[in-house]
Amino acid sequence: MNDYALMNKSAGHHLDLSVLSRAWDWIKYRALGLDESDVPGERVASWSLSSDARVRPLIHARLALWGLDGLAEAAELLVEQLVADVEEHAVEVHAPGQYRLTVWATDDMLRCEVEAEDPDDAPMPHDMRVFRRLACCWGSAGNAFWFEIPMNPQDKCRNSGWVSGGRIA
């Protein structure tokens, strides 16, 4: 029982804030399109967004929450490149681009993926120089483009066996 519930119980009321906490979780993760799961040794956050969403604050806040501030600038820049490609194609077809942004953090790697809702909007960056400079590996699969950044810049890419179109540092 939390402190607030204990205080109110001693005053003759009993209010369990866990109900409010569960309601807030439902609002955040279901009604607002946010999704988060906890896997031992891995942190995952995923958002369903439209092309006009501001992704930099989402990435920055999530990585700060996970204590990965040092990777935020590179991740923000790379994700923004992918989202810009989804937006560019959406403008061409005069429709809002919908996509899912997913961020995974393990003990040794940060992985970001942008998956377009429409297969025709699949992100493919035009300028790969920034990926070559900041990511250890990257690739695409179906409607999605992903990249990885090692927690330690001296580490090699752990996915060297299945990289599609990416460079192994």
Automatic annotation (TrEMBL):
InterPro entries named among the record's database cross-references: HATPase_C_sf
Lineage: superkingdom: Bacteria
Protein name as it appears in the record: ATP-binding protein
